[in-house]
Amino acid sequence: MKKIVLATLLALSSAVASAHTLWVVPSHFVLSSEDSWISVDVSAANMTFVPDRGVSPNNLAIVFPDGERHAFAQSYQGRRKSQADHQLTMDGTYRIELAGPARYFTFFQQDGERRRILANKDERAAQLPANATDVLTTRSRGRALSFVSVNAPNDTALALSQQGLELKLLTHPADVVATEPVRWQFVLDGKVAAGVQVELSREGELYRDDAGRELMTTDAQGMLAFTPPVAGRYVLEASLTEDSTDPLADRVRETLTLTFEAALP
Fold this sequence. Notes:
- By secondary structure, the chain is mainly beta.
- The protein is built from 1 helix and 20 strands.
- The strands form 3 sheets. Strands 2, 5, 6, 9, 10, 11, 12, 16, 17, 19 and 20 form an 11-stranded mixed β-sheet that branches. Strands 1, 3, 4, 7 and 8 form a 5-stranded antiparallel β-sheet that branches.
- Strand 3 and strand 4 (about 55) form a beta hairpin.
- Residues about 1-20 have low confidence and may be disordered.
């Protein structure tokens, strides 16, 4: 019972976070000198780039242009947003990523109430109450990304892990320009991901009557094509729920956000 109560409390906390879009936004997307410092804001918010809830930076990492992964030199968690700083010591493209390991949740009905426990399909039998019904296990994972390029961009930090929902950046983030087409491809566990629901939003939403959000869906090859209408900062938010090939889950729930900049044409 303690595990069920704990999971219920975690579920409430997770529900608050999941109602918001999680994003990481660097102070600069393109820099022209080595040894520059980058500052990164992290928040979960309903409105684009308007901080609402600070998020722990413990799982925030930076991948250097040579592929080496580092923790941020310093970080701070605030009420509305968290912040981290790091020195960029080489030319190329850096990957900023906030991501944790996949988690397994088993949902079930008990005495007319919907509950969940932290357990995969192998673990759930020992934790489920005897009268549990409508049992379903979900593997849940999310990540928030951004990329910063110093002088000459490269592709090493863009490499995919083949785990979870990922984005193949056919148009390099440093090459995104307003009014010019962008082509990216979604993959799930290394395979093309069709039918991914995507929402594109841009900065300044607080000062517009029309939020200006664009809803899109990837095609049969996982492709996403769009054209940023104006220069500025954008957030792309993607989600996918489908039946699972993971033997530890009945379905997978994946989310991904990417913050990027469209340069002036």
